[in-house]
Amino acid sequence: xxxxxxxxxxxxxxxxxxxxxxxxxxxxxxxxxxxxxxxxxxxxxxxxxxxxxxxxxxxxxxxxxxxxxxxxxxxxxxxxxxxxxxxxxxxxxxxxxxxxxxxxxxxxxxxxxxxxxxxxxxxxxxxxxxxxxxxxxxxxxxxxxxxxxxxxxxxxxxxxxxxxxxxxxxxxxxxxxxxxxxxxxxxxxxxxxxxxxxxxxxxxxxxxxxxxxxxxxxxxxxxxxxxxxxxxxxxxxxxxxxxxxxxxxxxxxxxxxxxxxxxxxxxxxxxxxxxxxxxxxxxxxxxxxxxxxxxxxxxxxxxxxxxxxxxxxxxxxxxxxxxxxxxxxxxxxxxxxxxxxxxxxxxxxxxxxxxxxxxxxxxxxxxxxxxxxxxxxxxxxxxxxxxxxxxxxxxxxxxxxxxxxxxxxxxxxxxxxxxxxxxxxxxxxxxxxxxxxxxxxxxxxxxxxxxxxxxxxxxxx
Length: 461
Prior knowledge:
Layout: E1 7-13, E2 17-23, E3 29-36, E4 48-49, H1 51-71, E5 79-86, E6 92-95, E7 105-106, H2 114-126, E8 129-132, E9 135-137, H3 140-150, H4 159-169, H5 171-178, E10 182-185, H6 187-195, E11 205-207, H7 208-211, E12 217-218, E13 223-224, H8 226-232, E14 241-243, E15 246-251, E16 261-267, H9 268-275, E17 283-288, E18 292-299, E19 310-315, E20 324-331, H10 335-345, H11 353-358, H12 383-409, E21 415-419, H13 426-436, E22 440-441, H14 448-458
Parallel strand pairs: 1-5, 5-16, 11-14, 17-21, 21-22
Antiparallel strand pairs: 1-2, 2-3, 4-7, 6-10, 8-9, 12-13, 15-16, 17-18, 18-20, 19-20
Helix pairs in contact: 1-6, 4-5, 9-14, 12-13
Family: Belongs to the FGGY kinase family.
Keywords: ATP-binding, Glycerol metabolism, Kinase, Nucleotide-binding, Transferase
Protein name: glycerol kinase
């Protein structure tokens, strides 16, 4: 006889794979399933995803994890609600009528849009933004106005730039835009659209954390900004309805979880912030992967950075709740530096070996590791010094970002919670604490991103 359960599911749509994880009320994992999906690099600097493949893999992961849960003796209806977390900024364009993608999705890492950025940088200087009717800001004032509205700079990174490129280069997208048939969204918006019935129901939503990465959201009013739609040349009809990170958006239309509500949406880095319980001012998390993403919770007030950090929305715990904000900084080279020691320097055979090698020396022997590999000479021959200097370089970069966050926010750091592959090394985390001069907490639950969306879904308004 099957056991009844009270579980929450999390659909984690990452950059290279999709996972569905089923949590119990203690945040223990009951079942999970993960599938990688193809990456497309048609030209240098281009990085595409097939949005349909992401959706198909998501559905397959749900079915497989539920099957495993049932095989373990749990009732099929044990999952009461699910949340979704996702790679941010990746832009998806689809037809409202057919529910099908109009082109490949452009991934957050893609850099083909440099000319688009240059065009809008020039437009910002020469024409500017109409911040209120009849009031234009241009030049340096225009640049500042854009940051004040969105918390972001013009960059290839953010979704609006990618969408503009799609409209300019794909006739199908341009035609749909003109015909009011174009639906634009980031990955959570696309996946949710399909889970809730696709074109038949037409539910087109996006949460504030993902919307805050588009260059189109006014992070003060929590609404799409008309002046930026005009600036980029977008029709308002393309945009999803804005929702909080924790409320019921609808029920799954088909499959093993038919009828189960979806009630949590959150971008992956903000999901990790929530999953690590960094919910109050002064609490921070850093996810160490190929690069590293550091988010510092600033509470209920937007903090504008004077040190090049991004101001973003951390979460909104229900449609009637006040949003919580964060400062974000990133490190381009973190885990990839260790990979370089393995693949190019050949001083370790696996990434895990870096901690043991670095532990052979108490210091780096005066060696500093600069994360700029081009043209670097192999002047040092002590592998242990090199390994330790690599760990220290990561720690110094983290400390520099945190120092900027403290200056911008005026709030003390309570602690830094960490997750990601690099955090498995005890020495790496001890070096981080020693160099940083702050408390580093490594939670037992490492699936913080997925847990974050599950917590938001479970606490739905």
